Each structure stands twice: as structure tokens, then as C-alpha cells.
TrEMBL record, chain A:
Compartment(s): Cell membrane
GO annotation terms (biological process): transmembrane transport
SUPFAM superfamilies: MetI-like
Domain ABC transmembrane type-1: 69-256
Name of the protein this chain belongs to: ABC transporter permease subunit
Organism lineage: Bacteria, Bacillati, Bacillota, Clostridia, Lachnospirales
From TrEMBL, chain B:
Residues passing through the membrane, by range: 12-37, 69-92, 104-124, 159-178, 199-229, 255-273
A biological process from GO: transmembrane transport
Pfam families recorded: BPD_transp_1
Lineage: Bacteria, Bacillati, Bacillota, Clostridia, Lachnospirales
Domain ABC transmembrane type-1 as annotated: residue spans: 70-276
Name recorded for this polypeptide: ABC transporter permease
Organism, as annotated: Roseburia zhanii
Length: 266, 288
């Protein structure tokens, strides 16, 4: 075989391999999307009974499912805001100031990242039970902030590593105080790191199953609702909601990405 | 002078680092210490935790049935990690070094599936592999098999689900490590007469080993705890340590025993992280 021919076959094998991996990643999503159009009405909703849009309409009559989705959004927004605020402040302070016990804080930060989620879940459950905090929206938010704060800090820190201290000094020389300097100078520079951290926190919160499973009480999030329905078979309206969520996120990303590309060109 | 020190350093560091420190103490350190304490506690007749010292929970950890599950769990996590490395390495290599303009899209396509809830995607696998699922229907339609195959509820199905859930955690660090590779190094190696194989083993692999290490940590440890994958796809035939803990905190209602079982996971995590650091692994790269 000629050299060029050999290279072509190599490339072909590469493309075929990657296609298989992508198929593997998207296969269950295809199953979800197809089943959201299944006309079956009997559990466990597995036999194909024809094509229908019904479930996308009926979805809006399923109050419990919609409210679980609402809970997920509330928890994700509140916990992301909290985690981003204390995380950004913390990352900045740890970078800038000298104090004892920095190593301890660092060590504590790595725990939620590496420890199996179930361990954090049962620990928080035990704590909340012991100090009598009723399980619900509040405990879910507390737990979600706990597992997302380290990711915010790491992202902001990555941004801080290239940070030029002299711009702060310049600001203070020009008469701005420490607080104004932080908000007007430091924050805008750190913005991409903060945004990256917040996005990660939001994604983690929305998809969390294991930790929420232990601390939820009667407040159901969307993943917990799915977990409940799995025992009797996931109904097509749950699939319909998942399909809509996926579509929503893809549209969002395409919009932000294309915006990003435009700015890059300009 | 003292006053200046307070205003210049102490006060701002308290304001900035204080909140996150308190948060981590209250919601990470205290709960974990409490679990440690609870693992030495007893139950009263109403299944409430009482602070009466006992080693019973630890003795029960050596139950033969439990030991089998630890072994099985480690085996599942190990297989998951190996498969993830073998698939994710060439895959990440191809998408990280492509000259195509679509590189960013290829990368995003790995992330997008993970915006759909992981439970429902695992259920998607269950639907696909079930006796009336797509795969069995297709196999029978093509007359490859005459009867539906029992594809679910094996150890292998659980491994498949774990690989599926954890695959991106292997791809992301590998992608980062491979993208950083300097193309001129590879050319230099080739110029000096190295064949493809020796370039790979002597140049590429050592330079990307950090990605393999952090990916392995991010895959192996969660695989010990993902009880829902073993529940949905393994159907009770391939429990992991996470299932044992979950049961004690839910239906079993023996929290001290569950706490002692969690200590096993904590110890495994500590051990692996120590090894990771010995190998020169950077803790920060586990988080981004």
C-alpha cells in the first residue's frame, strides 16, 4: 500500500473509532427522546404504541413533576449564587493575604471533590438530624453549596495565578479604597474564572442525585422525581421534560458560543 | 504598627476567607468527624443512635458477605477505570490533536450528554438492553438470536453503566494533558529515528501520565459509591460499597454500621490520594 493510502486508512479507523464513542455517549439520550413520543399509556411504558406529541402537552398537567423541576432551578440558582460569593471571596483572600491555617483550609477544600458523594451525603444527613434542622429546601441548598464551593475556588484560583498585583496598587495610589478596588478592579479581571466556576456549580447542582437523595426530606428535585419513577417505569412525560431540558441547554450553549466566536473575530 | 497590621492583613483576610472557612468547618469537617464518632456508637431499642461506645460496628465489617462486596466493588471500579483509560486515551488523543476547525464542537459533544440527568440516562441503557429493548428486538429481527438475551443484571452491565457515567472525568484531564503536548517534541523524536511505538512509550506516555493519574482518581473513587448504577443496571447482583452504606441509612436503619462502612470508603480515598500525590499528582487538577 502506498504511504498516502496507509495514512488514509489510519484516518478512517480514527474517525470510525470516535464515531463509535459518540454513539455510545448519545445512545441512551436517543432512547429518552424516542420514548418521549411513545403513545403507550400502560406501565412500564416500554412497548412502542405509535408516535404522539401528547406527552409534551400532558407534561403541563403533571404538577408534581413541574414543581420538582421548579425546586431544582431554585436550589441551583440560590446555591450557585452563595457558592460563587463565598468561593470568590475565599479564593481571593487565600491568594492575597498571609494567615495561619491556610493548609487546613486547602485540605478541607479537596475533601468534597475527592470523597465519594455518598459519604458527604450521609455525613450531612447525620449532622442535620443531630442538630434538628428539618430536611427540605434549606438542607438541599446548604448541601449543594458545600459540594460546589471548591469548584468555584479552583476556577477563580486558576485565573488568579496570572493576576497582576500592580493594577490594584495603581488603583489605591489613585485614591480608591480597598473595597472599591476589589469591586472595580479585581472582580472584572477575575470575571471569566468566576463565571466558569458558577457554571460548573450550577451544572453540578442540577444533576445531583446522591447527596440530594440523603438530605431532601419531602422536597423533591427533578433527579429525585426521576429516581422515584424508575421503580414503576419512567413515564413518557418525564422523558418529554428531559428532552425539553436538553434542547434548552443546547440552544443556550449555541447562543453563548456563537456570541463568543463573534467577539473573538471582532 | 499593630493597628496597621490589623487593617492591612488581619481584617481583610477575615472578611474574605472567613465565610468559606466557617462553611467548610460546619458542613465538611464537623459532619465527617461526627460520622467517625457515630461509627463507635450503639443503637437503642428504637433504632436511635446512642453515645455508648462499642466496636461491634467494626466487627461486623468483617462479615463474609460484606467482604465479598468490597472485593466486587473494587473489581468493578478497577475494570471501569481500565476501560475508561483504554477508550478515552485514543479518543482524547484524536480530538485534542485534530487540525479540524470543529475541535471545539467535538469537545462539547462529550459534555452535552451530561446535561441530561444521569439517572434517566442510566434508565435509557436499561430500556435499550432489556428483554423487550431495542437491542434484543434488533437481534431477533435480524435472526441473530431466536430468544431475547438476558443482558441486564450482570456485573458487566454495572461496569458498562459506571463507564458511561464516569467517562468524561477521564476524557477531560487526558484532553488537557494531550493538548499541552508540544508537537515539535514528537517531530524531534521521529527525526532522531524513533519509531511510532517508541515515541509513544518514551515521549508521549510519560508526558501525559499526569492526565491518566488524575482521570483514574476521578473515575475509581466515585465508582465505589455509585449505588444507583448498581441498583438500576445490576439489579442487586453487583452491589458496590455505596449500596451497603445506602441500605444502612435508609431501609436498614442502622446508622452506626453505615458510618463504619463509610470509614472504609474514606480510608480507600485517603490511600489513593496519597499514592496520587506521591506520583506527583496535582490536587487542583482534580477539580477543574
Amino acid at each position: 500500500m502506498s504511504r498516502q493510502g496507509k495514512r488514509k486508512t489510519k484516518k478512517g479507523i480514527g474517525i470510525a473509532f470516535c464515531t463509535c464513542v459518540y454513539l455510545f455517549l448519545f445512545l441512551p439520550i436517543l432512547v429518552i427522546v424516542v420514548n418521549s413520543f411513545n403513545a403507550t399509556t400502560s406501565k412500564p411504558y416500554l412497548t412502542w404504541k405509535g408516535f404522539t406529541f401528547d406527552w409534551y402537552v400532558r407534561l403541563f398537567d403533571n404538577g408534581a413533576l413541574l414543581s420538582s423541576f421548579g425546586n431544582t432551578i431554585i436550589i441551583a440558582v440560590v446555591s450557585t449564587l452563595l457558592a460563587t460569593m463565598i468561593g470568590t471571596l475565599g479564593a481571593f483572600g487565600m491568594y492575597k493575604y498571609k494567615f495561619k491555617g491556610k493548609g487546613v483550609i486547602d485540605g478541607l477544600l479537596y475533601i468534597p471533590v475527592v470523597i465519594p458523594e455518598i459519604v458527604l451525603g450521609i455525613s450531612l444527613l447525620s449532622l442535620f438530624t443531630n442538630v434538628n434542622i428539618p430536611r427540605g429546601m434549606l438542607t438541599l441548598i446548604l448541601a449543594h453549596v458545600t459540594f460546589s464551593v471548591p469548584f468555584v475556588i479552583f476556577n477563580v484560583r486558576a485565573r488568579l495565578s496570572g493576576y497582576d498585583n500592580s493594577i490594584e496598587e495603581a488603583s489605591m495610589d489613585l485614591g480608591a479604597n480597598r473595597v472599591i478596588t476589589f469591586f472595580e478592579i479585581t472582580l472584572p479581571v477575575l470575571a471569566p474564572g468566576i463565571a466558569g466556576g458558577a457554571l460548573l456549580a450550577f451544572t453540578l447542582s442540577i444533576d445531583d442525585v446522591i447527596i440530594s437523595y440523603f438530605v431532601n426530606g419531602q422536597t423533591k428535585t427533578y433527579p429525585l422525581k426521576v429516581m422515584e419513577s424508575i421503580k414503576s417505569g419512567v413515564a413518557p412525560d418525564v422523558n418529554a421534560l428531559s428532552t425539553l431540558i436538553l434542547l434548552g441547554t443546547i440552544v443556550l450553549v449555541v447562543l453563548t458560543q456563537s456570541d463568543f466566536l463573534k467577539k473573538k473575530k471582532a | 504598627m499593630k493597628k496597621h497590621q490589623w487593617r492591612a492583613n488581619t481584617l481583610p483576610s477575615l472578611v474574605t476567607v472567613g465565610p468559606v472557612t466557617l462553611w467548610l468547618l460546619f458542613f465538611v469537617a464537623v459532619p465527617l468527624i461526627y460520622v467517625g464518632v457515630m461509627s463507635f456508637c450503639s443503637l437503642d431499642q428504637y433504632y436511635n443512635v446512642t453515645f455508648q461506645f462499642t466496636l461491634d460496628n467494626y466487627k461486623r465489617l468483617f462479615d463474609v458477605n460484606y467482604i465479598k462486596i468490597y472485593g466486587q466493588s473494587v473489581l468493578i471500579a478497577f475494570l471501569t477505570t481500565i476501560i475508561c483509560i483504554l477508550v478515552a486515551y485514543p479518543f482524547s488523543f484524536l480530538i485534542a490533536r485534530t487540525k479540524s476547525k470543529k475541535k471545539m464542537i467535538l469537545y462539547m459533544l462529550v459534555i452535552i450528554p451530561f446535561w441530561t440527568n444521569s439517572l434517566i440516562r442510566i434508565y435509557g441503557w436499561k430500556t435499550f438492553l432489556g428483554t423487550t429493548g431495542w437491542l434484543n428486538t434488533a437481534l431477533q429481527f435480524l435472526h441473530i438470536t431466536s430468544e431475547p438475551l438476558e443482558l441486564l443484571f450482570h456485573r458487566g452491565t454495572t461496569v458498562l453503566g459506571m463507564v458511561y457515567c464516569l467517562f468524561p472525568f477521564m476524557v477531560l484531564p487526558l484532553y488537557t494533558a494531550i493538548e499541552k503536548l508540544d508537537g515539535s517534541l514528537l517531530e524531534a523524536s521521529a527525526d532522531l529515528g524513533a519509531k511510532g511505538f517508541s515515541t509513544f512509550f518514551e515521549v508521549i506516555l510519560p508526558l501525559t501520565a499526569s492526565g491518566i493519574f488524575s482521570g483514574s482518581i476521578m473515575v475509581f473513587i466515585p465508582a465505589l459509591g455509585y449505588f444507583f448504577v448498581a441498583d438500576i443496571l445490576g439489579g442487586g447482583n453487583s452491589d458496590v460499597i455505596g449500596n451497603l452504606i445506602e441500605r444502612q441509612f435508609q431501609s436498614g436503619n442502622n446508622w452506626p454500621l453505615g458510618a463504619a462502612l463509610s470509614i472504609i470508603l474514606i480510608l480507600i480515598t485517603l490511600l489513593l490520594v496519597k499514592i496520587y500525590q506521591k506520583l506527583g499528582g496535582d490536587m487542583e487538577s482534580l477539580g477543574v
